[in-house]
Amino acid sequence: MTQSISDISVQSITGQEITLGDYAGKVLLLVNVASYCGYTSQYAGLQQLYDRFKDQGFEILAFPCNDYGQQEPDSLEKIQQFCSTRYSVTFPLFEKVHAKGADQHPLYQTLTQTPPAGEVAWNFEKFLVNKNGEVVARFKSAVSPDAPELVAAIENALS
């Protein structure tokens, strides 16, 4: 059985508590992000995806994470400023989370137990969640935001 993420609470980058159930009825792309990663330029593609699909009930939720190569050491304020000024990011950013290890955030505990189960390998791994809060696809870091298989999965989840 697919587990829903709807009951999980997260903190916005500004400290506001949000339950992922607040996004019920929307298709979500959850991404662990980092400012000093070889994949950081994917912010631009993620913003393009967001602009393309946001009016159809699509959200990107970005979770800064310092678990991989210490590539997100900055303060939340600096992360927010970086994303805004460098990539004009308008999708929601959240507080830093641990995607792996003993302090793994409950969100990532759920995401990594959902088939295909397994650890998040690196920054910018993407989880696609359907309108019911269920993970329906997972894409490794090297899959760019404009990759046909990712775009097709989003379109399918929205339809």
Automatic annotation (TrEMBL):
Belongs to the glutathione peroxidase family. InterPro entries: Glutathione_peroxidase, GPX_AS, Thioredoxin-like_sf, Thioredoxin_domain. Keywords: Oxidoreductase, Peroxidase. Pfam families: GSHPx. The active site is at 37. It comes from the Bacteria. Residues 1-159 form the Thioredoxin domain. This is Glutathione peroxidase. PROSITE patterns: GLUTATHIONE_PEROXID_1 (PS00460), GLUTATHIONE_PEROXID_3 (PS51355), THIOREDOXIN_2 (PS51352). GO terms for molecular function: peroxidase activity.
